[in-house]
């Protein structure tokens, strides 16, 4: 079967793949761009995520990256010509400190964030309780708050990107699995369930599924899949604006604009690509929810779900060109929703120009796992 051809092939139509394809289209180089996805629209990590976007991180690199991303989310309706917007609920994040040591660590983060222009601040327990009176007062000695943090609708973000990518002339095909990649002279041939596609450049954005595509090309990726779990309640009257985080439990709580409340608990689980729910998660998640917001204990849970996320040993992304010329990779290591605007831009630059000046590209290399120059971020949940 003769191969279809394109100039740039993006594999994966989640937040990373679609964002990169959009930025490539924005460059208006005339290159033909094709995006292939094994699944359906939104049936991926992006569509399953907690949708949190925050500047409150510990490392300067993370703070800078998220600050850029949030600036893009703020302007996404205009940038992507998506007039009704992506439901950016920018009502802040409250990071709850359970004791004085944690608050002291948070203070150091806030100092770093403030130095980079992030308007985060330390709150006393009373000040935090004024913002969210439903919080259990016994759980906190204080908190940090950044009013620019918030949540974005994953479905609207993907929809806005998909439409903008289409307008830019790129072709997006769902239901097409790439089963293998082969180098053929100066090009790469992707074997797919709908026939081969040959491209000069291939960008792999398949998150935790990347190792199986790259391993046959001799590229071992230190990426594993680990389930992450969430639940959503029935809708309730608008009660609290900010997202709530109890970092020691990996707990994230957010009330959606239509009233339902989402809770995510990130915990160490056996590595797996399964989307099956774990029997012990619901009591854990519901228990932490009720402990955090006892006044909302009457709310019923509508559903819970589990979806794999990509894991690396420092929980930071892997970005850049691989040892095979023309082959590029962008894998998030968990916080891929919030990093997608800026990672898309970086990857578009690298794929088109072969370079980007962004510090994230120099930092988040595959090589760091061989050299041991890991970049662990203290504020991952
Ligand atoms: C419960 C939960 C809560 C989360 N909360 C947050 C949060 O608050 N903030 C945050 O930033 N992140 C969060 N995340 C993580 C975030 O969802 C991911 O990091 C992000 O969505 C990854 O985006 P992606 O585009 O790389 O991957 P995906 O969105 O998973 O897209 C990858 C795509 O690749 C396709 N694909 C895979 N293999 C192939 C193949 N062989 N051929 C063709 N296509 C293929 C898949 O079908 C999929 O559509 C959360 C995740 C979960 C599960």
Describe the structure.
This protein is α/β, with parallel strands linked by helices and 381 residues long. The chain has 2 domains: 4-47 and 155-223 and 314-371, FAD/NAD(P)-binding domain (3-Layer(bba) Sandwich), CATH 3.50.50; 92-149 and 225-311, D-Amino Acid Oxidase, subunit A, domain 2 (D-Amino Acid Oxidase, Chain A, domain 2, 2-Layer Sandwich), CATH 3.30.9. Helix content is 29%, strand content 26%. It is built from 11 helices and 18 strands. It has helices at residues 15-26, 60-74, 76-79, 100-115, 125-131, 154-167, 210-214, 281-292, 336-353, 359-363, 368-371; strands at residues 4-11, 33-36, 52-53, 93-97, 121-124, 142-146, 150-151, 171-173, 178-184, 187-192, 197-204, 224-233, 243-246, 251-255, 261-265, 301-311, 318-321, 327-331. The strands form 3 sheets. Strands 1, 2, 8, 9, 10, 11, 17 and 18 form an 8-stranded mixed beta sheet that branches. An 8-stranded mixed beta sheet has the order 5-6-4-13-14-15-12-16, with helices on both faces. Strand 10 and strand 11 (197-204) form a beta hairpin. Helix 1 (15-26) runs parallel beside helix 6, helix 1 (15-26) packs across helix 9 (336-353) and helix 2 crosses helix 9. The longest helix has 18 residues, at 336-353. The protein is globular and about 65 Å long. The structure holds flavin-adenine dinucleotide (FAD). Flavin-adenine dinucleotide (FAD) binds next to helix 1, strand 12, strand 16 and helix 9. Flavin-adenine dinucleotide (FAD) is lined by residues 11-17, 36-39, 44-46, 48-52, 177-178, 205-207, 209, 213, 228, 230, 264, 307, 309, 332, 334-338.
